[in-house]
């Protein structure tokens, strides 16, 4: 049985108070995400139910019940509190997908501090920019990532504590570094959770824009109201489900639907901390008897590439349905996965800024392959005319995807950058920065982004960040970075550069430049290709026209070049 019932009926009578009631929340009450994800589930009689099934490299397995995660959250929270971390301090999580990452997420929130999860694959420069922006006070990390922190600590006066979760006695520590091994710590039974309110800050996720540094998207504890209900109705999680969200919590999917949604519903979830391979993924589903799977279109396209035959080698009959987010889910991928898995495949659309799913397919709803589905109940979505910022009154046109502010998981600002936050609104609408059309049945059909941000395998890459890294190399005079088509990742990063006098283009120089920028960028943002140019296309005012380079890569019409400087 599905949680959904009649979608139409739900939309008609919808009110976010449905979620508030189920969570026993009333306006003005205390609301703490970590309490909802652990203590409350234990109070509801599920203390001994598995919360987390973890599988790491080399087949290491660990299991945690809801009582275990409650205690771990308390223990980590107490440790941080003893260090002097208080409410609204920023605590960064810089770890691979090991259990401590998930448990620390709860610990930080339990003391009312703000959790700042960052991909452990980030190089020191990417890490520095984000820690500096947030004025982060503590970072929880692993020994293997410590060298990156050590390289930048002198430039970060606010960063007072570096907490290492897998420290070995034999290794020496430096100033500000403290060991904390959860397995050796005495579990704390009774803990005073900080009484956060609806508008208390909770999670700070960094996202890339076209220009400027990455922006810190500030979420609040009230976001739970959206995350809980969307998880329940869209992912349709039920008590006996075994859920797998493949996203890293460095990405908002990995927190909203990889921690908060499932745990606030008391659902068992699995984490696989190893690289991608089709066989390993299928084996994991079979072994753990995963019933609901939330992933990214790139993963599906990679599975598609691995072929149909390998699917038959595993028993995947445990799956009930699958969902994805992050980038366009092409119709072929929907058709393919429905064929090989024989289950519905749900595309969902949202953003770091929206905090929860906005446009979506539901279990049981008619799926039109290639469409993102319809607006979630309570979400007022429209397509705005790009010229007037007024909603289109007729269907069939491509417009800017916009939402009426007011859903619970919406960001409250960009950290330290309220100006950029204000720019996201026009005529009372929140502008997503994406374009779409809508058909007569109310289904949205994504057509592209409204800016130059590159979406590679579901990860947003700022062309500006890559261009800046390139410009720091002594040989590079100018750079322009655009998306290039790719079969699996949809888009990959391509860089165009011009050289300073005295430098010769060639493979050797390309390798040197690549090695230089690798230290500054996340592996996801690394260009797949660097092309040397004599000059870059520019406007008369000297602005590089990425649009022209983009059109060339995609074999598209170049469009209006009246501002191009041909000299
Ligand atoms: C951007 C947001 C929220 C978790 C995902 C990433 C693109 C997202 C879809 C989809 C086409 C999609 C949009 C959006 N995107 N979902 N179903 N179809 N495009 O969050 O890193 O903030 O990226 O990802 O361009 O604006 P994010």
Which descriptors would you attach to this protein?
single chain, 567 residues, alpha/beta, Rossmann fold, GMP Synthetase, Chain A, domain 3, nine-stranded mixed sheet, five-stranded parallel sheet, 29 strands, 24% strand, globular, binds 5'-O-[(S)-butoxy(hydroxy)phosphoryl]adenosine
Fold blueprint:
Layout: H1 7-12, H2 17-22, H3 33-46, E1 50-55, E2 61-65, H4 66-83, E3 90-94, H5 99-110, E4 114-117, H6 124-134, E5 138-141, H7 143-152, E6 161-164, E7 177-179, E8 201-207, E9 215-220, H8 224-235, E10 242-245, H9 252-264, E11 268-272, H10 278-288, E12 292-295, H11 297-306, E13 321-324, H12 331-341, E14 345-349, E15 359-360, E16 374-375, E17 381-384, E18 399-403, E19 413-414, H13 418-422, E20 425-426, E21 429-438, E22 444-449, E23 454-456, E24 459-461, H14 463-471, E25 476-486, E26 490-499, H15 507-518, E27 529-532, E28 538-539, H16 546-554, E29 564-565
Parallel strand pairs: 1-11, 3-4, 3-5, 5-6, 6-7, 10-11, 10-12, 12-13, 13-14, 26-27
Antiparallel strand pairs: 1-2, 8-9, 9-19, 14-15, 15-16, 17-18, 18-21, 20-21, 21-22, 23-24, 25-26, 28-29
Bound molecules: 5'-O-[(S)-butoxy(hydroxy)phosphoryl]adenosine.
5'-O-[(S)-butoxy(hydroxy)phosphoryl]adenosine binds near residues 351, 372 and 449.
